């Protein structure tokens, strides 16, 4: 495929840019050369959106944004940049104007809600001994343990940050639903996907960490978006 776009991968809560490692390698094998994985501070939606916005603005040519989990809220907030050709949501939040990830979760709580605990500094953590069963039950135990130990906690206040104007109302979208997700209720994923009228929806029998447990299928889905936006 000629003139492949740059792909910017945006991580969510309880993980950093390295959560995309398997998808990155799969994209590289398919001859994608302009790959970028932003490392967001997870301190506020405004700060995370601005960090991602700065990365995209430094890229010449078309950009496809791919957001996992809370990363979906980030690309929703900043994804209206002129060079952004589309938004791919991977088991992700896609709030509307005035909505927040926390508000969406309170409407239909996920199965692992009780396994999230605050610390004394205002950060939220997935309890380490509950991480695999909550976040990535379809990954090998050792791999899940590493993710649990290296998890990147968000400030609790970030959950309540509202979207201003959703980019999915202006840009083409694609949405992957994880039917065994315990961090975002799968019914919430279906609702968010349906209202944005995506060009394609993919349901996988996967955990919240579908980017790690099903990297081939996720990469296939990203390529679907590339083909659709590249003509």
Describe this structure in words.
The protein is an alpha/beta fold. The chain has one domain: Alpha/Beta hydrolase fold, catalytic domain (Rossmann fold, 3-Layer(aba) Sandwich). The chain contains nine helices and eight strands. The chain has helices spanning 21-29, 45-57, 71-78, 101-107, 131-135, 141-149, 186-196, 210-213, 215-230; strands spanning 6-10, 35-38, 63-69, 84-92, 116-118, 124-126, 173-178, 200-204. The strands form two sheets. The chain has a six-stranded parallel beta sheet with strand order 2-1-3-4-7-8, sandwiched between helices. A two-stranded antiparallel sheet has the order 5-6. Helix 1 (21-29) packs across helix 9 (215-230). The longest helix has 16 residues, at 215-230.
SSE layout:
Layout: E1 6-10, H1 21-29, E2 35-38, H2 45-57, E3 63-69, H3 71-78, E4 84-92, H4 101-107, E5 116-118, E6 124-126, H5 131-135, H6 141-149, E7 173-178, H7 186-196, E8 200-204, H8 210-213, H9 215-230
Parallel strand pairs: 1-2, 1-3, 3-4, 4-7, 7-8
Antiparallel strand pairs: 5-6
Helix pairs in contact: 1-9, 2-3
Order of helical and strand elements = EHEHEHEHEEHHEHEHH
Q: Describe the biggest sheet?
A: 6 strands, parallel
Number-wise, the strands total 8
Order of neighbouring strands in the sheet with most strands: 2-1-3-4-7-8
Taking the alpha carbons of the first and last residues, their distance comes to: 10 Å
Number of domains: 1
Give the name of the CATH architecture: 3-Layer(aba) Sandwich
Gross morphology:
globular
What Rg, in angstroms, do the CA atoms define? 16 Å
Secondary-structure-derived class = alpha/beta
Tell me, rounded to a whole number, the average pLDDT. Answer: 97
Approximate strand percentage? 15-25%
Q: Helical segment tally? A: 9
Low-confidence residue ranges: none
**What's the CATH topology name?**
Rossmann fold
Instruction: Specify the CATH homologous superfamily.
Output: Alpha/Beta hydrolase fold, catalytic domain
């Amino acid at each position: 495929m000629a003139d492949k776009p740059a792909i910017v991968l945006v991580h969510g809560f309880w993980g950093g840019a390295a959560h995309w490692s398997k998808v990155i390698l799969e994209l590289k094998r398919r001859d994608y050369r302009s790959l970028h994985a932003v490392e967001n501070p997870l301190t506020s939606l405004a700060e995370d959106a601005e960090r991602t916005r700065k990365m995209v603005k430094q890229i010449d040519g078309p950009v496809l944004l791919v957001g996992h989990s809370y990363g979906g809220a980030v690309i929703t907030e900043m994804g209206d940049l002129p060079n952004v050709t589309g938004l791919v949501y991977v088991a992700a939040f896609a709030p509307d104007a005035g909505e927040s990830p926390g508000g969406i979760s309170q409407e239909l709580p996920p199965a692992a809600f009780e396994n999230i605990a605050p610390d004394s500094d205002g950060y939220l953590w997935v309890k380490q001994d509950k991480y695999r069963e909550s976040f990535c039950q379809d990954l090998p135990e050792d791999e899940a343990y590493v993710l649990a130990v290296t998890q990147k906690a968000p400030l609790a206040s970030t959950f309540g940050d509202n979207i201003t104007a959703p980019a999915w109302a202006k840009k083409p979208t694609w949405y992957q639903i994880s039917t065994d997700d315990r961090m975002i209720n799968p019914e919430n994923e279906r609702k968010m996907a349906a209202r944005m009228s995506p060009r394609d929806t993919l349901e996988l029998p996967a955990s919240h960490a579908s980017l790690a447990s099903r990297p081939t299928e996720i990469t296939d889905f990203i390529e679907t978006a590339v083909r659709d936006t590249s003509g």
